[in-house]
Design brief:
Strand order of the largest sheet: 3-4-2-1-5-6-8-7
CATH architecture of the largest domain: 3-Layer(aba) Sandwich
Bound molecules: 2'-deoxy-thymidine-beta-L-rhamnose
Number of domains: 2
Mean pLDDT: 96
Number of strands: 14
Shape: globular
Order of helices and strands: EHEHEEEHEHEEHHEHEHEEHEHEHHHHH
Length: 384
Protein backbone atom coordinates (compact mmCIF):
# COMPACT_ATOMS: atom_id res chain seq x y z
CA UNK A 1 0.00 0.00 0.00
CA UNK A 2 1.19 3.45 -0.86
CA UNK A 3 0.01 6.45 1.10
CA UNK A 4 0.43 10.21 0.69
CA UNK A 5 -0.11 12.00 3.99
CA UNK A 6 -0.51 15.79 3.85
CA UNK A 7 0.31 17.89 6.90
CA UNK A 8 0.12 21.63 7.25
CA UNK A 9 1.60 23.11 10.40
CA UNK A 10 -0.93 25.71 11.55
CA UNK A 11 0.86 26.56 14.77
CA UNK A 12 2.59 24.66 17.57
CA UNK A 13 3.60 21.03 17.15
CA UNK A 14 0.42 18.95 17.31
CA UNK A 15 -0.18 18.74 13.57
CA UNK A 16 3.27 17.51 12.69
CA UNK A 17 3.47 15.54 15.95
CA UNK A 18 0.39 13.49 15.05
CA UNK A 19 1.28 13.08 11.37
CA UNK A 20 4.83 12.02 12.11
CA UNK A 21 3.68 9.35 14.57
CA UNK A 22 1.05 8.09 12.14
CA UNK A 23 3.47 8.01 9.18
CA UNK A 24 6.06 6.04 11.14
CA UNK A 25 3.48 3.60 12.43
CA UNK A 26 1.92 2.96 9.02
CA UNK A 27 5.39 2.21 7.72
CA UNK A 28 6.87 0.19 10.57
CA UNK A 29 3.81 -1.77 11.74
CA UNK A 30 1.84 -2.11 8.52
CA UNK A 31 4.65 -2.00 5.95
CA UNK A 32 3.02 0.80 4.02
CA UNK A 33 5.09 2.98 1.76
CA UNK A 34 4.43 6.45 3.15
CA UNK A 35 5.16 9.89 1.75
CA UNK A 36 4.68 12.64 4.30
CA UNK A 37 4.13 16.06 2.71
CA UNK A 38 4.91 18.80 5.27
CA UNK A 39 4.83 22.54 4.73
CA UNK A 40 7.06 23.46 7.69
CA UNK A 41 10.23 21.46 8.09
CA UNK A 42 11.67 23.79 10.72
CA UNK A 43 8.91 22.90 13.21
CA UNK A 44 9.30 19.27 12.20
CA UNK A 45 13.00 19.38 13.07
CA UNK A 46 12.16 20.33 16.68
CA UNK A 47 10.56 16.93 17.30
CA UNK A 48 12.75 14.95 14.87
CA UNK A 49 16.26 16.34 15.05
CA UNK A 50 17.57 14.57 11.93
CA UNK A 51 15.20 16.49 9.60
CA UNK A 52 17.06 18.78 7.22
CA UNK A 53 14.81 21.79 6.59
CA UNK A 54 16.52 22.76 3.32
CA UNK A 55 15.84 19.47 1.52
CA UNK A 56 12.91 19.06 -0.87
CA UNK A 57 12.80 15.37 -0.13
CA UNK A 58 14.50 13.06 2.37
CA UNK A 59 14.09 9.63 3.86
CA UNK A 60 13.48 9.53 7.64
CA UNK A 61 12.69 6.27 9.47
CA UNK A 62 11.82 4.72 6.08
CA UNK A 63 9.23 7.46 5.50
CA UNK A 64 9.73 9.71 2.47
CA UNK A 65 9.41 13.27 3.75
CA UNK A 66 8.66 15.84 1.05
CA UNK A 67 8.56 19.58 1.52
CA UNK A 68 5.05 20.71 0.63
CA UNK A 69 5.51 24.04 -1.12
CA UNK A 70 2.92 26.21 -2.89
CA UNK A 71 3.69 24.59 -6.23
CA UNK A 72 3.84 20.82 -6.03
CA UNK A 73 6.46 19.04 -8.09
CA UNK A 74 5.32 17.31 -11.28
CA UNK A 75 3.71 13.96 -10.43
CA UNK A 76 3.57 11.03 -12.80
CA UNK A 77 1.39 7.94 -12.99
CA UNK A 78 4.02 5.94 -11.11
CA UNK A 79 3.57 8.27 -8.09
CA UNK A 80 -0.09 7.29 -7.71
CA UNK A 81 -0.83 6.34 -4.07
CA UNK A 82 -3.57 3.92 -2.95
CA UNK A 83 -4.58 6.26 -0.14
CA UNK A 84 -4.39 10.01 0.38
CA UNK A 85 -4.75 11.40 3.89
CA UNK A 86 -5.58 15.04 4.39
CA UNK A 87 -4.68 15.56 8.03
CA UNK A 88 -6.14 17.93 10.58
CA UNK A 89 -8.07 20.35 8.41
CA UNK A 90 -5.33 20.98 5.86
CA UNK A 91 -6.35 21.44 2.23
CA UNK A 92 -4.87 19.40 -0.56
CA UNK A 93 -3.94 21.58 -3.57
CA UNK A 94 -6.58 21.57 -6.39
CA UNK A 95 -3.93 20.42 -8.91
CA UNK A 96 -3.28 17.33 -6.79
CA UNK A 97 -7.04 16.61 -6.54
CA UNK A 98 -7.36 16.85 -10.31
CA UNK A 99 -4.45 14.46 -10.66
CA UNK A 100 -6.18 12.02 -8.25
CA UNK A 101 -9.42 12.31 -10.22
CA UNK A 102 -7.66 11.55 -13.51
CA UNK A 103 -7.12 7.88 -12.63
CA UNK A 104 -9.62 5.13 -13.41
CA UNK A 105 -8.39 3.39 -10.28
CA UNK A 106 -8.71 6.42 -8.00
CA UNK A 107 -6.87 6.66 -4.69
CA UNK A 108 -8.99 6.50 -1.56
CA UNK A 109 -9.21 9.90 0.12
CA UNK A 110 -9.44 10.28 3.92
CA UNK A 111 -9.79 13.37 6.02
CA UNK A 112 -8.13 12.75 9.38
CA UNK A 113 -10.03 14.94 11.81
CA UNK A 114 -9.21 16.58 15.14
CA UNK A 115 -9.64 14.64 18.35
CA UNK A 116 -12.87 15.10 20.26
CA UNK A 117 -14.61 13.12 22.99
CA UNK A 118 -18.00 14.59 22.03
CA UNK A 119 -20.69 12.06 21.13
CA UNK A 120 -21.58 13.65 17.76
CA UNK A 121 -18.30 12.22 16.47
CA UNK A 122 -19.86 8.73 16.52
CA UNK A 123 -22.36 9.76 13.86
CA UNK A 124 -19.76 11.41 11.62
CA UNK A 125 -16.88 8.96 11.79
CA UNK A 126 -16.34 7.18 8.44
CA UNK A 127 -19.01 9.21 6.61
CA UNK A 128 -18.36 9.93 2.92
CA UNK A 129 -18.57 13.37 1.37
CA UNK A 130 -18.61 13.73 -2.44
CA UNK A 131 -16.43 16.40 -4.00
CA UNK A 132 -18.71 19.11 -5.50
CA UNK A 133 -17.19 19.01 -8.98
CA UNK A 134 -14.67 16.19 -9.32
CA UNK A 135 -15.48 12.45 -9.43
CA UNK A 136 -13.99 11.93 -5.97
CA UNK A 137 -15.31 11.45 -2.48
CA UNK A 138 -13.56 11.76 0.82
CA UNK A 139 -14.24 9.94 4.07
CA UNK A 140 -14.07 11.56 7.49
CA UNK A 141 -11.94 9.68 9.94
CA UNK A 142 -12.27 10.76 13.57
CA UNK A 143 -9.86 9.80 16.34
CA UNK A 144 -11.60 9.20 19.66
CA UNK A 145 -11.99 7.37 22.92
CA UNK A 146 -14.63 4.80 21.96
CA UNK A 147 -15.09 1.85 19.59
CA UNK A 148 -17.39 3.98 17.45
CA UNK A 149 -14.46 6.21 16.43
CA UNK A 150 -11.09 5.70 14.76
CA UNK A 151 -9.34 5.29 18.13
CA UNK A 152 -6.10 6.80 19.41
CA UNK A 153 -2.51 6.70 18.19
CA UNK A 154 -0.69 4.00 20.13
CA UNK A 155 2.36 2.20 18.82
CA UNK A 156 2.71 -1.55 19.31
CA UNK A 157 4.65 -2.32 22.49
CA UNK A 158 4.62 1.32 23.62
CA UNK A 159 2.73 0.87 26.88
CA UNK A 160 4.81 -2.15 27.89
CA UNK A 161 8.04 -0.32 27.26
CA UNK A 162 6.84 2.68 29.29
CA UNK A 163 5.83 0.38 32.14
CA UNK A 164 9.40 -0.95 32.09
CA UNK A 165 10.82 2.58 32.32
CA UNK A 166 8.39 3.39 35.13
CA UNK A 167 9.39 0.34 37.14
CA UNK A 168 13.14 0.40 36.68
CA UNK A 169 15.32 2.78 38.68
CA UNK A 170 18.22 1.91 36.39
CA UNK A 171 16.35 2.84 33.18
CA UNK A 172 15.17 6.06 34.78
CA UNK A 173 18.69 6.91 35.89
CA UNK A 174 19.90 6.34 32.32
CA UNK A 175 17.12 8.51 30.98
CA UNK A 176 17.89 11.44 33.28
CA UNK A 177 21.55 11.11 32.36
CA UNK A 178 20.69 11.37 28.68
CA UNK A 179 18.90 14.63 29.49
CA UNK A 180 21.86 15.86 31.52
CA UNK A 181 19.75 15.95 34.71
CA UNK A 182 22.05 13.91 36.88
CA UNK A 183 20.36 14.80 40.17
CA UNK A 184 16.76 14.24 38.98
CA UNK A 185 16.36 11.08 41.07
CA UNK A 186 17.05 13.07 44.24
CA UNK A 187 13.82 15.00 43.92
CA UNK A 188 10.75 13.66 45.71
CA UNK A 189 8.47 14.78 42.92
CA UNK A 190 9.11 15.41 39.22
CA UNK A 191 6.60 17.35 37.16
CA UNK A 192 6.69 17.95 33.41
CA UNK A 193 4.99 21.19 32.46
CA UNK A 194 4.04 21.50 28.79
CA UNK A 195 1.36 24.17 28.58
CA UNK A 196 0.23 27.36 26.89
CA UNK A 197 0.34 30.66 28.79
CA UNK A 198 -0.70 30.61 32.46
CA UNK A 199 -1.35 34.13 33.75
CA UNK A 200 -1.70 33.15 37.43
CA UNK A 201 1.04 30.58 37.76
CA UNK A 202 3.15 32.32 40.38
CA UNK A 203 1.23 31.36 43.58
CA UNK A 204 1.37 27.69 42.57
CA UNK A 205 5.14 27.92 42.03
CA UNK A 206 5.47 29.57 45.45
CA UNK A 207 3.42 26.76 46.93
CA UNK A 208 5.84 24.22 45.42
CA UNK A 209 8.83 26.22 46.66
CA UNK A 210 7.45 26.30 50.21
CA UNK A 211 6.34 22.66 50.31
CA UNK A 212 8.00 20.01 52.45
CA UNK A 213 8.45 17.82 49.38
CA UNK A 214 11.14 18.75 46.85
CA UNK A 215 10.01 19.30 43.24
CA UNK A 216 11.84 19.24 39.94
CA UNK A 217 9.71 21.14 37.41
CA UNK A 218 10.64 20.52 33.77
CA UNK A 219 9.46 23.10 31.25
CA UNK A 220 10.03 22.75 27.49
CA UNK A 221 11.20 25.82 25.63
CA UNK A 222 8.37 27.98 24.33
CA UNK A 223 6.02 30.76 25.42
CA UNK A 224 5.49 29.45 28.94
CA UNK A 225 9.24 29.09 29.50
CA UNK A 226 9.65 32.68 28.29
CA UNK A 227 6.89 33.84 30.65
CA UNK A 228 8.56 32.06 33.57
CA UNK A 229 11.86 33.75 32.71
CA UNK A 230 10.04 37.09 33.09
CA UNK A 231 9.01 35.99 36.59
CA UNK A 232 12.42 34.60 37.59
CA UNK A 233 15.28 36.20 35.68
CA UNK A 234 17.70 33.43 36.83
CA UNK A 235 15.85 31.18 34.40
CA UNK A 236 17.74 32.86 31.56
CA UNK A 237 20.41 30.29 32.33
CA UNK A 238 17.78 27.54 32.07
CA UNK A 239 17.85 26.85 35.85
CA UNK A 240 16.11 28.28 38.87
CA UNK A 241 16.39 26.90 42.40
CA UNK A 242 14.45 28.26 45.33
CA UNK A 243 13.83 26.31 48.54
CA UNK A 244 12.04 23.08 47.59
CA UNK A 245 11.54 24.00 43.93
CA UNK A 246 13.95 23.59 41.04
CA UNK A 247 12.89 24.62 37.56
CA UNK A 248 14.75 23.49 34.45
CA UNK A 249 14.02 24.67 30.90
CA UNK A 250 14.46 21.82 28.44
CA UNK A 251 15.19 21.86 24.74
CA UNK A 252 12.58 20.08 22.65
CA UNK A 253 13.46 16.42 22.52
CA UNK A 254 12.58 13.77 19.90
CA UNK A 255 9.10 12.28 20.34
CA UNK A 256 10.19 8.88 21.74
CA UNK A 257 12.24 10.67 24.40
CA UNK A 258 9.33 12.92 25.28
CA UNK A 259 7.16 9.81 25.73
CA UNK A 260 9.74 8.44 28.13
CA UNK A 261 9.95 11.73 30.00
CA UNK A 262 6.24 11.47 30.79
CA UNK A 263 6.72 7.93 32.12
CA UNK A 264 9.62 9.08 34.33
CA UNK A 265 7.75 12.04 35.87
CA UNK A 266 5.13 11.80 38.63
CA UNK A 267 2.72 14.38 37.24
CA UNK A 268 2.45 15.58 33.64
CA UNK A 269 0.91 18.82 32.49
CA UNK A 270 0.12 18.28 28.81
CA UNK A 271 -1.64 20.24 26.10
CA UNK A 272 -3.12 20.22 22.60
CA UNK A 273 -4.01 16.85 21.09
CA UNK A 274 -0.96 14.66 21.05
CA UNK A 275 0.86 15.08 24.36
CA UNK A 276 -2.41 14.49 26.23
CA UNK A 277 -2.69 11.04 24.64
CA UNK A 278 0.96 10.35 25.42
CA UNK A 279 0.18 11.16 29.05
CA UNK A 280 -2.50 8.45 28.95
CA UNK A 281 0.05 5.87 27.83
CA UNK A 282 2.66 7.07 30.35
CA UNK A 283 0.18 6.04 33.04
CA UNK A 284 0.89 8.92 35.43
CA UNK A 285 -1.40 11.61 36.78
CA UNK A 286 -1.97 14.30 34.15
CA UNK A 287 -3.60 17.67 33.74
CA UNK A 288 -4.64 18.72 30.25
CA UNK A 289 -4.65 22.22 28.86
CA UNK A 290 -6.79 21.94 25.77
CA UNK A 291 -6.04 23.98 22.62
CA UNK A 292 -8.06 27.19 22.82
CA UNK A 293 -10.80 27.91 20.34
CA UNK A 294 -12.97 30.91 19.68
CA UNK A 295 -15.97 31.58 21.94
CA UNK A 296 -14.68 29.09 24.52
CA UNK A 297 -15.73 26.17 22.29
CA UNK A 298 -12.79 24.22 23.70
CA UNK A 299 -14.40 24.15 27.16
CA UNK A 300 -17.26 22.06 25.76
CA UNK A 301 -14.70 19.65 24.29
CA UNK A 302 -12.83 19.56 27.58
CA UNK A 303 -16.02 18.76 29.52
CA UNK A 304 -16.90 16.00 27.05
CA UNK A 305 -13.49 14.46 27.65
CA UNK A 306 -13.76 14.77 31.44
CA UNK A 307 -17.22 13.17 31.36
CA UNK A 308 -15.86 10.12 29.54
CA UNK A 309 -12.60 9.89 31.45
CA UNK A 310 -14.27 10.27 34.84
CA UNK A 311 -17.41 8.26 34.14
CA UNK A 312 -16.44 5.60 36.71
CA UNK A 313 -14.54 7.83 39.15
CA UNK A 314 -15.85 8.52 42.65
CA UNK A 315 -17.67 11.82 43.22
CA UNK A 316 -14.70 13.20 45.17
CA UNK A 317 -12.14 12.24 42.55
CA UNK A 318 -14.32 13.62 39.79
CA UNK A 319 -14.75 16.93 41.59
CA UNK A 320 -11.06 17.31 42.33
CA UNK A 321 -9.87 16.46 38.80
CA UNK A 322 -12.55 18.61 37.18
CA UNK A 323 -11.86 21.61 39.38
CA UNK A 324 -8.13 21.48 38.69
CA UNK A 325 -8.72 21.15 34.94
CA UNK A 326 -11.16 24.04 34.86
CA UNK A 327 -8.89 26.33 36.89
CA UNK A 328 -5.88 25.46 34.71
CA UNK A 329 -7.79 25.96 31.48
CA UNK A 330 -9.19 29.28 32.69
CA UNK A 331 -5.65 30.36 33.65
CA UNK A 332 -6.56 30.80 37.30
CA UNK A 333 -4.41 30.22 40.37
CA UNK A 334 -4.44 26.43 40.89
CA UNK A 335 -2.81 26.24 44.34
CA UNK A 336 -5.91 25.03 46.19
CA UNK A 337 -7.02 22.62 43.45
CA UNK A 338 -3.53 21.21 43.10
CA UNK A 339 -3.27 20.55 46.84
CA UNK A 340 -6.53 18.55 46.72
CA UNK A 341 -5.34 16.73 43.60
CA UNK A 342 -2.22 15.69 45.48
CA UNK A 343 -4.31 14.38 48.37
CA UNK A 344 -6.10 12.09 45.96
CA UNK A 345 -3.02 11.15 43.96
CA UNK A 346 -3.10 7.44 44.81
CA UNK A 347 -6.74 7.06 43.82
CA UNK A 348 -6.13 9.11 40.68
CA UNK A 349 -3.27 6.81 39.77
CA UNK A 350 -5.55 3.78 40.14
CA UNK A 351 -8.30 5.43 38.17
CA UNK A 352 -5.88 6.28 35.35
CA UNK A 353 -4.73 2.68 35.24
CA UNK A 354 -8.32 1.47 34.73
CA UNK A 355 -8.99 4.15 32.12
CA UNK A 356 -5.80 3.12 30.32
CA UNK A 357 -6.86 -0.55 30.43
CA UNK A 358 -10.22 0.37 28.90
CA UNK A 359 -8.53 2.28 26.07
CA UNK A 360 -5.94 -0.41 25.40
CA UNK A 361 -8.69 -2.94 24.72
CA UNK A 362 -9.58 -0.86 21.67
CA UNK A 363 -7.68 -0.98 18.39
CA UNK A 364 -5.23 1.86 17.84
CA UNK A 365 -5.85 4.55 15.23
CA UNK A 366 -3.29 3.34 12.67
CA UNK A 367 -4.67 -0.22 12.71
CA UNK A 368 -8.26 1.06 12.38
CA UNK A 369 -7.25 3.30 9.53
CA UNK A 370 -5.44 0.47 7.72
CA UNK A 371 -8.46 -1.85 8.07
CA UNK A 372 -10.85 0.87 6.91
CA UNK A 373 -8.70 1.77 3.88
CA UNK A 374 -8.10 -1.82 2.85
CA UNK A 375 -11.81 -2.68 3.01
CA UNK A 376 -12.81 0.39 1.01
CA UNK A 377 -10.15 -0.26 -1.62
CA UNK A 378 -11.11 -3.92 -1.98
CA UNK A 379 -14.76 -2.91 -2.40
CA UNK A 380 -14.06 -0.20 -4.95
CA UNK A 381 -11.70 -2.44 -6.95
CA UNK A 382 -14.25 -5.27 -6.97
CA UNK A 383 -16.88 -2.91 -8.35
CA UNK A 384 -14.71 -1.31 -11.02
C1 LIG B 1 7.63 19.21 24.66
C2 LIG B 1 7.82 18.25 23.52
C3 LIG B 1 6.77 17.91 22.71
N1 LIG B 1 6.97 17.03 21.70
C4 LIG B 1 5.86 16.68 20.81
C5 LIG B 1 4.75 15.90 21.41
C6 LIG B 1 3.63 16.22 20.43
O1 LIG B 1 3.74 15.37 19.31
C7 LIG B 1 3.91 17.66 20.01
C8 LIG B 1 3.04 18.65 20.74
O2 LIG B 1 1.73 18.58 20.27
P1 LIG B 1 0.46 18.74 21.20
O3 LIG B 1 0.69 18.02 22.43
O4 LIG B 1 -0.73 18.37 20.42
O5 LIG B 1 0.45 20.28 21.59
P2 LIG B 1 0.57 21.60 20.69
O6 LIG B 1 -0.08 22.67 21.43
O7 LIG B 1 1.97 21.83 20.35
O8 LIG B 1 -0.23 21.30 19.39
C9 LIG B 1 -1.48 21.84 19.08
O9 LIG B 1 -1.32 22.25 17.76
C10 LIG B 1 -2.46 22.88 17.21
C11 LIG B 1 -2.15 23.39 15.85
C12 LIG B 1 -3.57 21.90 17.18
O10 LIG B 1 -4.67 22.43 16.58
C13 LIG B 1 -3.85 21.52 18.60
O11 LIG B 1 -4.93 20.68 18.68
C14 LIG B 1 -2.61 20.88 19.18
O12 LIG B 1 -2.36 19.68 18.55
O13 LIG B 1 5.27 17.87 20.33
C15 LIG B 1 8.20 16.45 21.46
O14 LIG B 1 8.35 15.61 20.56
N2 LIG B 1 9.25 16.82 22.24
C16 LIG B 1 9.12 17.71 23.26
O15 LIG B 1 10.13 18.02 23.94
Amino acid sequence: MRCDLFCSVVDNFGDIGICWRLARQLQSEHQWQVTLWVDDLVSFQKICHSIKPNLASQLQNEVLVRHWTVVLPELTESDRPDLVIEALACTIPPSYLQWMASFTDKPLWLNLEYLSAEDWVHGCHALPSPHPTLPLQKYFFFPGFTEQTGGLLRERGLVDSLVKSRNSTELQQQFWQKLGLLDAMNYQQKISLFAYSQAQIRPWLEQLANAAQTTLLLVPQGQLATDLTQLFSELQTGRFDHNSLSIRILDFMPQPMYDELLACCDINFVRGEDSVIRAHWAGKAFIWQIYRQEEQAHLIKLQAFLDKYLQHASQEQKACIEQLHMAWNLEQDISTEFATFKEFSEQIQLHNKKWQEYLIQQQDLASNLVRFAENKLIMSRNFS
